[in-house]
Design goal:
This protein is α/β, with parallel strands linked by helices. It is built from 7 helices and 6 strands, in the order βαβααβαβαβαβα. It has a 6-stranded parallel β-sheet with strand order 3-2-1-4-5-6. β5, α6 and β6 form a beta-alpha-beta unit. The two termini are 21 Å apart.
Length: 193
């Protein structure tokens, strides 16, 4: 089965798709998790629109520039495109946590932007991340499910957050998350727990 035209998966970048290198600013530092390729390929083949939603406070802190962020994202996207994985758009919040921000997670603003620009049905869409703010972003936007992966900070968040994760799905990696999404959305995949 194929996803509906308006279904999307929103993905955190660092710790979810790639290793969380402290303030990643150079393409040569990218380490894509093996499960990222298989999981995203499955979602693309099922017809989901993919978006990256990433807080990059290193820009606001002066550690690197938006041009550096763009180079990293470009290299990541070029690499994944070789496997047929394409992103509709990348949303970046460059502000520090304490600064006013248009879209810094847990704000749902970038998901609302994707809804408005790409016709995404948020109630039929998903968010995947390794931090509580990723899940909260999805809950604040009204997505179908927020999924925590145990990569990056995920295992630590799972141990520390207890009941706050009651409405989340928790899986080992992005490939397992893809299987859950395909099962929940009726497009084929694992049945959710």
């Amino acid at each position: 089965m194929i996803a509906k035209m308006n279904q999307a998966v929103f993905l955190d970048r660092d710790g979810t798709m790639i290793a969380d290198v402290n303030y990643l600013s150079r393409p040569e530092e990218i380490e894509i998790f093996p499960a990222t390729r298989t999981g995203l390929k499955r979602l693309c083949q099922a017809g989901f629109k993919l978006f990256i939603v990433s807080n990059q406070s290193g820009v606001g802190r002066g550690y690197f520039t938006m041009a550096d962020v763009d180079k990293v994202n470009g290299a990541l996207c070029d690499d994944l495109l070789r496997d047929g994985i394409r992103f509709e758009k990348i949303y970046i919040a460059p502000e520090k946590p304490e600064d006013p921000s248009y879209g810094r997670k847990p704000s749902p603003q970038f998901l609302f932007d994707a809804r408005d620009e790409f016709g995404v049905d948020l109630s039929e869409s998903f968010i995947i991340g390794d931090k509580l703010i990723d899940l909260e972003c999805g809950w604040n936007a009204g997505v179908k499910k927020s999924i925590l992966v145990r990569t990056g900070y995920g295992a630590e968040v799972e141990r520390a957050s207890g009941q706050r994760l009651a409405d989340a799905m928790i899986v080992d990696d992005l490939d397992k998350a893809a299987g859950l999404i395909l099962g929940v959305s009726g497009t084929g995949g694992e049945t959710p727990p």
